[in-house]
Design goal:
Helix content: over 70%
Distance between the termini: 40 Å
Largest sheet: none
Number of strands: 0
Order of helices and strands: HHHH
Shape: flat
Structural class: mainly alpha
Number of helices: 4
C-alpha cells in the first residue's frame, strides 16, 4: 500500500528530492518521487495550483528524459491547458469589486 503524505512541506521535500535524483541521472527514482509529490499536491492544493502544475511539469520532463515521450507529451499538454485555464480564470471579473486579478507572468 502506497503511503500518502498529507502535508505541504512533505510534498515540497519530495519534489526537491526528485529534482536531485534527476540531476544525478536516477530517472526511475526521480519519476517515482515526482509522482508522489504530484499526488500529494493534487490532493492538498488542487490541480490548478502553481505548485501542482510545477510538479506535473517536472514529471513530464523526467518522462521525456527517460524516453517516454508519450507520457511526457500528455502531461505537458495537460499542464499547459491547466495554466491557460488558470490565466483565463484570473482575468475574469469574478471578484466582488468586478475587477480582474492581475496575471502573474
Amino acid at each position: 500500500m502506497q503511503r500518502l503524505f498529507h502535508r505541504r512541506p512533505t510534498a515540497r521535500a519530495l519534489h526537491r528530492a526528485a529534482i536531485y535524483r534527476a540531476g544525478q541521472g536516477a530517472l526511475a527514482a526521480a519519476i517515482r518521487a515526482f509522482q508522489r509529490a504530484l499526488t500529494v499536491r493534487e490532493q492538498l492544493l488542487g490541480g490548478d495550483h502553481p505548485d501542482t502544475l510545477s510538479s506535473r511539469n517536472s514529471l513530464a520532463y523526467a518522462y521525456g528524459s527517460a524516453g517516454d515521450l508519450g507520457r511526457a507529451t500528455a502531461l505537458y499538454e495537460r499542464t499547459l491547458a491547466d495554466c491557460e485555464r488558470g490565466r483565463s480564470l484570473s482575468r475574469s471579473p469574478s471578484s466582488a469589486s468586478g475587477t480582474a486579478a492581475p496575471a502573474s507572468d
